[in-house]
């Protein structure tokens, strides 16, 4: 290519890099704002989106997830956009490094999820089960999230109904949550609800089945994200190397 064509190609890729990362920056700001809103006023968020949100997101703390994702996208978008605009080799290398770290983390997480599913279940049980015992029936937002989850997924607790044994809710009401039994037409209070048709399956295995059912869609989305990350790293390296020739 002639010097003019090379310069034109460089300018085009630079502009695309700026626009792409500007979109990422704005998306990150939006997610961060929504995450802060959920943290400050979780009840309003759940009233609007609770029944529409996926079962998986209802098990985790949505506010912290959105805040972390938003902050990461803000950093990536700023480094890519400002680095391309100012033609800063330092910022472009930082952008490349951050995206590379995220890409490696995603690959590692995918491998761990595939190979150590049992370990993930054990860790999740160790974290969530104590929260169910302590916060269910105490914290309104936490209770509402689990009520929606158990109703939509048709499950009880994380592992099964025994997650509520010796819990605050069971000690106060002497029964398991209504959502655990209503699906089969049984309503507490009962002396032993689990003997009278209480849902035995836990939410973790039910959600895992939903994930496996939609594995093709999830895999396609993951592959698309990975392709974008590889493309972003390639473009940033192209701009980084071309700056030496200017």
Automatic annotation (TrEMBL):
Gene3D superfamilies: Tetraspanin (1.10.1450.10). Interacts with SLC19A2. Interacts with NTRK1/TRKA. Belongs to the tetraspanin (TM4SF) family. It comes from the Eukaryota. The chain crosses the membrane at residues 12-38, 58-79, 91-116, 217-241. This is Tetraspanin. GO terms for cellular component: lysosomal membrane; plasma membrane. Keywords: Glycoprotein, Lysosome, Membrane, Transmembrane, Transmembrane helix. It is found in: Lysosome membrane; Membrane. It is a multi-pass membrane protein.
């Amino acid at each position: 290519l002639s010097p003019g064509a090379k310069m034109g190609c460089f300018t085009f890729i630079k502009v695309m890099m700026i626009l792409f990362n500007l979109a990422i920056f704005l998306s990150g700001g939006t997610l961060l704002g929504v995450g802060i809103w959920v943290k400050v006023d979780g009840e309003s968020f759940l009233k609007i989106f609770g029944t529409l949100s996926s079962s998986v997101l209802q098990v985790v703390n949505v506010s912290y997830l959105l805040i972390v994702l938003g902050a990461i996208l803000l950093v990536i978008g700023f480094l890519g956009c400002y680095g391309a605009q100012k033609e800063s080799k330092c910022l472009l290398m930082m952008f490349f490094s951050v995206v590379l770290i995220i890409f490696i983390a995603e690959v590692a997480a995918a491998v761990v999820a595939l190979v150590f599913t049992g370990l993930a279940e054990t860790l999740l049980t160790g974290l969530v089960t104590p929260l169910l015992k302590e916060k269910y029936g105490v914290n309104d937002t936490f209770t509402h999230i689990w009520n929606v989850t158990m109703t939509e997924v048709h499950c009880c607790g994380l592992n099964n109904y025994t997650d509520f044994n010796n819990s605050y809710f069971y000690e106060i009401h002497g029964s398991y949550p209504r959502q655990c039994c209503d699906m089969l037409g049984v309503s507490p209070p009962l002396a032993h609800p689990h003997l009278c048709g209480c849902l035995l399956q836990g939410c973790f295995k039910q959600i895992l089945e939903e994930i496996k059912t939609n594995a093709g869609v999830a895999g396609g989305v993951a592959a698309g994200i990975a392709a974008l990350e590889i493309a972003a790293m390639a473009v940033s390296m192209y701009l980084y190397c071309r700056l030496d020739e200017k």
